[in-house]
């Protein structure tokens, strides 16, 4: 007779796949994580995996979206603090890029494109809407006029931050941390300059 699994147990398995999936993405990168990696890490059978998700890409996309949502909730909380705008922006950027559970530096645009090719069209539609929405909401929370803070300039600055944060270089961790800190403060300065 098959074992009956409660909703609570199912949620525990989903949470284990989420937590272990984050660890695997940070360790191996999106494209190198396998279903077997996930099932071993979450201590479930391969058949059980497919009772939760149709594919590895579906799970990884779900992990990325859930992580993104949790991160944005924390960023919204930071941005609503009653401290100077630049301080809020620095804290928010560090939350996005440098938090212990952040996967931003481990997921590239090509990883998202790779997953979206294997997911339903609704995911593609959501992805384009979501990016603009998060950016607009962040600027609005800071009282920043979008016309005074150019998206293409921010995109280059964020890409520089992403590059330094995700690339292993022989210059040492201390240099990397200082470079990330300088970039975070520079981006915060630029964004704060667009405040009303």
Account of the 3D structure:
The chain has 196 residues and is mainly alpha-helical. Helices cover 72% and strands 0% of the residues. It contains 9 helices and no strands. It has helices at 7-28, 35-42, 46-52, 56-79, 85-98, 109-116, 121-142, 151-166, 173-192. α1 (7-28) packs across α4, α5 (85-98) crosses α9 (173-192) and α8 (151-166) runs antiparallel to α9. It is globular. The model has no long low-confidence stretch (mean pLDDT 85).
Mean pLDDT: 85
The helix/strand order is: HHHHHHHHH
Count of distinct strands: 0
Largest sheet: none
Relative strand content: under 5%
How much helical structure, as a percent, in the residues? Answer: over 70%
Map the helices and strands.
Elements: H1 7-28, H2 35-42, H3 46-52, H4 56-79, H5 85-98, H6 109-116, H7 121-142, H8 151-166, H9 173-192
Helix pairs in contact: 1-2, 1-4, 4-5, 4-7, 5-9, 8-9
